[in-house]
TrEMBL record:
PROSITE patterns: PROKAR_LIPOPROTEIN
Protein name: DUF3887 domain-containing protein
DUF3887 domain span: 36-124
InterPro entries: DUF3887 (IPR024981)
Superkingdom of the source species: Bacteria
Amino acid sequence: MKKLILPMFIIALMLVLVACGSDDSDPNTEKYSEKAEEVVSLLNEHKYEEVHAMFDETMEQGLSLENMNQFTPVLEESGDFVAFEKTSVDEQDGLYVTVVIAKYSNLNRVYTISFNDKDEIAGLFIK
């Protein structure tokens, strides 16, 4: 009987761990990860007009198309884009806040891009 306790405990522990695992099958996670990576790609290509067209009204007023040129020196300092290292999506206050870690040849950058329920960009930050 004692020999069965340890294997049963291990099986029970495995079931609990599997049940508590994260569910990455949320369709919004995939959708907003792809949208955020698209935005980063457009920024890397200096296609600011296309990104600006994705802004909601508040972002349009807060960050003019002309002021988006301020991203150019930041992106040039980063070097050549290499890959997306990690992307995560969290829903907060009706927004889908997407954090993208992008690897560049000189520096890595962290993009925080928020989308509203109309899939418009409601926030954009680069660190």
